[in-house]
Amino acid sequence: MNAQGTDMSIQHAIERSAQGSPRGLLVLLHGVGANERSLATLAAAQAPDLTVLLPRGPLTLGPGAHAWFQVAFGPRGPVINPQQAEASRVALIDFIAAAQQRLGMAPAQTLVAGFSQGGIMSASVALTDPQLVAGFGLLSGRILPEIAPLVPADLAKRPPQALVMHGRQDSKLPFTHAEESTALLQKLGVPCTLRAYDEDHGLNAQMVHDFGAWVAQTLR
Predict the structure, then answer these.
(1) Which of 15, 110, 135, 158 has the fewest C-beta atoms under 10 angstroms from its C-beta?
(2) pLDDT in tens, 95-123
(3) What is this structure's pTM?
(4) Which CATH number is 47's domain given?
């Protein structure tokens, strides 16, 4: 997998503005090899009083194909580029903070979530900077062990809410990742909801519905 360019800042994003008085901000992060339009269906399913931002990963893999970090899948599982993952984590924190300031949104009104690698990044952001968001959604993803030194020791005092959604037949990131992520979150004192589905590495209509319900409940 080859990535073009070294600028890890976030240069492109789609914004779906809220109708009327905005109730919250939702940041949705796409997976590897996708782009900011890949989660448009998930964004469209959210309540109209939410502002939804869909940023593009800073790495270009090809036409319309972007990523937050490079990853290779081998017999021992995924192997990532940790420097790129860290640079994207920092860039996303800056991006979300700037959006909150621009839109007048507080951390208690903000959620970050993503699919696959986007879910990985949402967990990395929320667990290392828990005061930035109210919660995060890990959709068919995992939690990087590389972020462990960056997780605050007092995370359990003011933890974000967590949603873990995963297909039991996931052939890219097996369901064991969801179980391991849930166990880790419980150990860290992070309130977590685990939902399992008869699905491969993807999002079905039930997952979209359940995600929207979690967003509404978390931001009520």
Answers:
(1) 158
(2) 999 999 999 999 999 999 999 999 999 99
(3) 0.95
(4) 3.40.50.1820
